[in-house]
Specification:
The protein has a single domain (38-81, 118-270), classed as FAD/NAD(P)-binding domain (3-Layer(bba) Sandwich). Helices cover 39% and strands 23% of the residues. The chain has helices at 18-36, 48-59, 93-101, 117-131, 163-168, 191-199, 214-223, 237-243, 253-270, and strands spanning 38-44, 64-68, 87-90, 106-109, 112-115, 134-137, 139-147, 154-162, 175-184, 226-229, 232-234. The strands form two sheets. Strands 1, 2, 6, 7, 8, 9, 10 and 11 form an eight-stranded mixed sheet that branches. It has a three-stranded antiparallel sheet with strand order 3-5-4. Helix 2 (48-59) runs parallel beside helix 4 and helix 7 packs parallel to helix 9. It is globular and about 65 Å long.
């Protein structure tokens, strides 16, 4: 190391004062947000299903934004099972998707693999961003944009606000995100559908998920992934909450495949 330039030498950018740095930051944020308010697909929720869907949609050159109310991506996946640092994935399409994302899988038994939930969350998010997805953390949906009525009703976007504003119950006007399709990937909250249930009585119902049965739950959540009403699609555990399918615990394969399926359905619809 003697004689070599050290990586910490000469790094301090002294030419900018703090006001200039603030200006650059606001400009960069504005550019990113301006890409997020008029999109092809708005995904609410950055769990495994939402991240998988946004990645695969962006790969098809669709403009995608992901709205996530927490400060990190991964959703409930990050906690594994009871905060144990592992999750399970079964052999099949989920394994193929995760391998393509660069996620390491360890085969525990025939057809059952373990993943590091943190790695899985990070790498799915990275693939989505690399493909062009804009992820905006700390934002939460407070309403949907709905056009028409009766048989002509359709969802045309999502209404968002900063999560701390909503948690504080301040009356601050929101931001609108217009989109050709909206995906509810909010997991057990099924937040977008519950908003519709309150706003437009009789349009939809959210009975909640049924009791745990892993393999039935995995199959059902994939089977019932799709468009609930025109413009609004369900993926992941939102499917279970709306269609009363079984829960499956820390087995993430169904979430990944559900995300891949909803991406395919949205692509077909928008094309």
């Amino acid at each position: 190391m003697d004689g070599e330039e050290q990586p910490y030498e000469g790094w301090l950018p002294t030419r900018y004062d703090e006001a200039k740095l603030a200006q650059l930051l606001v400009e960069a944020a504005s550019r990113r947000l301006s890409r997020a308010v008029d999109v092809d697909v708005a995904v609410v929720g950055a769990g495994p299903a939402g991240l998988t869907a946004s990645w695969l949609l962006s790969e098809k050159d669709l403009r995608v934004v992901v709205v996530e109310r927490s400060l990190g991506t991964g959703g409930g996946m990050r906690g594994g099972s009871m905060l144990l640092p592992a999750g399970l994935v079964e052999e099949g399409p989920a394994v193929r998707v995760l391998k393509r994302a660069g996620v390491k899988l360890d085969e525990l038994d025939e057809g059952i693999f373990s993943v590091d939930p943190t790695e899985m969350a990070i790498k799915l998010a990275a693939r989505a961003v690399e493909a062009g997805t804009v992820i905006i953390p700390g934002y939460q949906a407070e309403d949907l944009m709905v056009k028409g009525s009766g048989e002509d009703i359709r969802v045309s976007g999502v209404v968002v606000n900063l999560a701390p504003i909503l948690e504080s119950e301040w009356h601050v006007d929101p931001l609108f995100i217009g989109s050709r399709a909206v995906i509810d990937a909010t997991g057990h909250d099924a937040q977008l559908v519950r908003l519709l249930e309150r706003r437009i009585p009789g349009l939809v119902k959210v009975p909640g998920m049924s009791s745990l049965d892993v393999w039935h739950g995995e199959a059902e959540v994939i089977e019932k992934t799709g468009e609930l009403i025109p413009g609004l699609f369900l993926t992941g555990m939102s499917v279970a909450e709306v269609h009363n399918t079984r829960r499956m615990g820390p087995v993430f394969g169904g979430m990944v495949v559900s995300g891949a399926k909803v991406a395919r359905l949205v692509i077909e619809k928008l094309s």
